[in-house]
Amino acid sequence: MGRMGYSRATDLLADDGAAMAEVFGLGRPVDARRPVRRPRPDGRARRAGNYPGWAVPGPGRGRGQSLNLRQSVRPVLVALFCNNLHQNLRTCYEVDGVAARALYGLEELRVRTAVSKRWLRTRGWTLDRSGAVGVLLKLGRSRSRLDACKQPAVAVSVSLDGKRPLCTCSGPEKCLEVGCMFQRDMDAALEEVRAAMQMTLSEVFDVFLSSVRGVARAAGTAVPYGTTLCTVSAGVGSWPFAVVRRTVAKKWVCVACPTADGECMHQSAAVIAAAGGGDGGYDSGDNGTPDMRFPDDGPVGENGPPVATGNPYLLYPRFNDVHQSRLVRDLVPPDVAQRTRNALVEAAASSETTLEYPAEKLCPYCRVGPSPLMPPIPHECRVEFDDGSVMAKVHSWRCQHCLLRVMPDGREHGLIFASPFTAYSEAYMFELAVNLSRNGCSLRSSAYLRSGYSELTAPFKYVERSHRLRSVATLRKGLTLYLALVIKGLPLAVSTCTSCVTPDGTIEVVCFDGLQLGYKHKYKKRFKRQTLRTSAIPRASVHAHVVTDSAVAKALGSVFNTASKMPAGSAKTITTVAGMRGYVMAVSTLLGNVFINGTEQTFAGQRQHGMSASTAGKGWSFTVDGGVRPALSAFLRRFFRCELVARSLCTQILAASLDLYRRVPEPLMTRIQDQVRAQPVEMGAPPNAAVLEAAAAERPSAAVAGALSVAVPIAAAPSGDGGGILGPVDLPAGVGLGRAESLRVGVSADVGSADAGVRGTLSDESEVEETDEELTSADDRVSVDGESTPEMPPYWDSFAPLVRFAELFTEPALADTGGDKGTKLEADMLFRLQPNIPTTAAATLKIVDFVRAVTVDPFVVWAPDGDWGAVDAIVDVLSSDSYTSAKLAAVLDRSDVSELRLLRAAVACLGPGLERDAGLRPVLADLLRSLQETEATYTSFVAASQVCDPDGDEAAASAVVEGDGGPLHVAAFTKEQMASAHPHECFTPAQYTATWIETPASVASFNAAYGVTEEAPEDFLATGVWAPSFPVLRPIPMFNGTAQEATDEPDCNHLMGRENKYTGGTFGAFCTCAHPKCLGVVVLDGSEGQRMPIEFILQRLAKLPAQVVYDFSCATLKTALCRMPFVARCVSFLVDRFHWRKNHVSCTKAMNPDSYESMETINTSSSEERNALSRRQEHHVRLMNQDNFVTFTTYQQALSNVIAMYKDAETEMTTTKWPRWYKTKFVDVVGNTERGVEET
């Protein structure tokens, strides 16, 4: 016949019979996906094409190992009946010859069904608890119109009618008249069971009825099965039961009542039963598996399990406890684990090797040995290793005091017992766990490849006795058990850093970051964490700023930059009345109040800004209604040319909608319009001193003349602007303006002479806009046609005139003119210094950064840890009558001043101007004093806003807290009183601080307050937190209320982890060394929030860190100001460098870690480095339940810590890799296995 082209029968039968049709000449089978075209009654053609509503489903993809119960009803019925009959025979009958024969037959038949216990655990149950013989099947949603049963769950009962079974179900058909759809499968299943038991059908039903609860057949009795199904008895007839199921939304709906599924009596009975008020509960159902008993167990009495002979009054016996390994393990397996793996390989390769593991000598709970009358007995257990498995004999005995089945734990043998009949090699578990944590593969893919490789190599490496490998579910169970034991056995050195953390647990810098990688929301369970409700202080953070109105601060911050072009006016810039008010008051801050007929008008409101959340009676005064301190306004107008930036703000005001700017008082709006229409006096490019020297060299006639006259006409500044008129200054021709000698430090006259050459003269011709349309263009300072700026001659930066000041103040910006680019930038900047202040382009940038930080950021950034030493030192030298630049330089060299780089750089860059004009010094000193005044105002407001007593009892015992606003009585609570308070009782931040922060913190005091007597380490599965080196010292201050505008909502719109169908992920604390370690990881029970760094350091750090690095620190600082003022004063909150450059465009450089000298060598991206590795596991971590997610996440961080510890210790002389290094350092010396052997 020739070659057919098919080597195996499976190939011939593949592809839905297409190969058979090809061989035997049959037509290709009809494609089920092709719609059937039936003629219409009227003769019209039907629509052709693909549309929903197929008669039968198509072939689709190949199915996996999941159970399709609709196609496997018969084997599932057989498996359920085998389990039920097996349990009834063992429980209710004596195991004699007939029963033993039936048990053997049932066990043999049960194995042939190929239906695993895991499938039946949540898909099928027997109805003996509901008072009937039958089954409850969870079929799932019907996906085809040809399915016999369309319901997702059905209860099928069977009774013996004479000599034939009669089947009824909860489906809609009349089973007693037309027959049940499950009758044929039920008959076949009962016949198989009867033949296996070698009994008659009536005898089989007698065994069924031995466990049936007759009382459950009463009508309306609801019995839950599992967590999602419940049967309700409906009496006799074709529908003996109604099935009620729980949806994903946790609502109970009745399957039998489709039109009233949520209102029928069946549904109400199921709700009561599910809540524990009915007959049974979630944990009282049969899990589909026979009761595991051992040959030496005594017979079961009528009232329950056997009684403990050694302890007849035992209330909680451990008879049904499933044996698992319980002793902790080392992260790297010891030598005994490697020797055990070799023994397993030899046993798999040779049939002469037999493995036996003796039982423990004492019960782990009762500490008693086995009874002489009942010595240990062996049973078979499958032990799996890398690519094979062997059967071993495990000895066990029953404790007569607690009825626990005592078996070997496996630690002394290098094994992990997942159950009494399954064990895994510890060495294999270690390699599998490391691969999952480091390589990003899933457990299912790893198990699949392991099985595939075993199929290839096992026939050549091992004899036939090498059994098949367990399923993925069993492997997952063993792996999670191993990971949990390893985590519990980790030394404390793994969860800390010897470089960053001192022996007393103090750490200076902590880096936090959230990882938006969570598990499904349906697996979420509540964590057990001690919390205390603390109240907020509304509007507290606004009083911590020099400008309390955030709208004014934002408006000023938008123009305090080095922009050279005015942005075009846009109606989207100002969209609210608060925004309009902020821009108008910002203009008044820059230009001062308006004068009407010689009288100053402030348009002030009724109350100072920030004292009330109400906007009623609010005016337009920048000092009263805008909260701008007069010292800031005076500083801006004295040091800067404010006309251009004010004009930029006015352009945005006029671009707003008519409904907004019509609310502005007419005098203010008139000034705004005049400011835009006016022809501003523009400054030309300031001639650098070196440029003048080069120009003088090219004009020898000017040098012979003997003098160079430079006229600097400066127009009189407006009131309060600080401007003045500097007349012509004659410079001798022999003085080299480009040399360092041209400017002698410490002599005001010399500085003033040099200033004329530094800043240059004003242009005689101003830049004029031709029409009103040009006022709203992208650049309002376009030169008149035909006018061009002359090209500047080249010069050298080394000839900068302020180089002597740069050397004195150690400020390179004063010596860096920036060349042509710097000169042009300085000439084009909208926000520029006054002409009488010598500076450079680079120095101006640093001054602008300082001014923006003072305006936008709270005072705490200038007083780290509440220390005002740097500000006080600068104020003292500025206020001194004997001021000199040398004294200022000495102050700038102080360590506390050098720490604040923004402050030091700004004062140094203003040094030449402070030397030239003594009138500038008190203005700068007043600005710095205003920062301290802001702190005093904030302290007074916080003190006045504290609640005296939560219960309103003024006579209660109190402690006095002194503040600027007077003495404040704060209720004195002890730690025990707070711990025992009602969960809804709310405490003030001052009360929490006085009780938990200002008093010594220790684990003992916390445990005593909360009544914790256990000395065991924290249960990371129950709390969701792993930080063993930083145990709980204080309760978490659970902030009461939501953050709104009144409670200081953060300005930045930073994207954080939020809950959707997955949880928020994790939140980790890391050190900042070269190889960062995880100090703690928190599994989020909600969305990530800016409060979490505060919660972690308060709960677990005895001494608060100096700096906290977080990608949302700008919001965390505001939260601390209104939630926990003590933390805001003591801790500096900074943004990591990665996110600072990426998405913190609205924050000032005070949030940048580079603005602080102590952060120069700090790795602020340590958290990002560690979380980058965790993101590899996204595809399989999201599918874990909560316990597995917590376990795997904790193990992954611990493993990465070990590798980081190895990199810290690694040198060129290191010859071992990290597993051997860890084993030598932690396992061989003080390992858990060796410690357990010594204790034994």
From TrEMBL:
Compositional bias ranges of the Basic and acidic residues kind: 32-45
Q: Where is the composition biased (Acidic residues)?
A: 764-777
TM helices/strands, residue ranges? none
Q: Where is this region: Disordered?
A: 32-62, 756-790
What is the top-level taxon of the source organism? Answer: Eukaryota
Identify this protein by name.
HMG domain-containing protein
Give the source lineage, highest ranks first: Eukaryota, Rhodophyta, Bangiophyceae, Bangiales, Bangiaceae
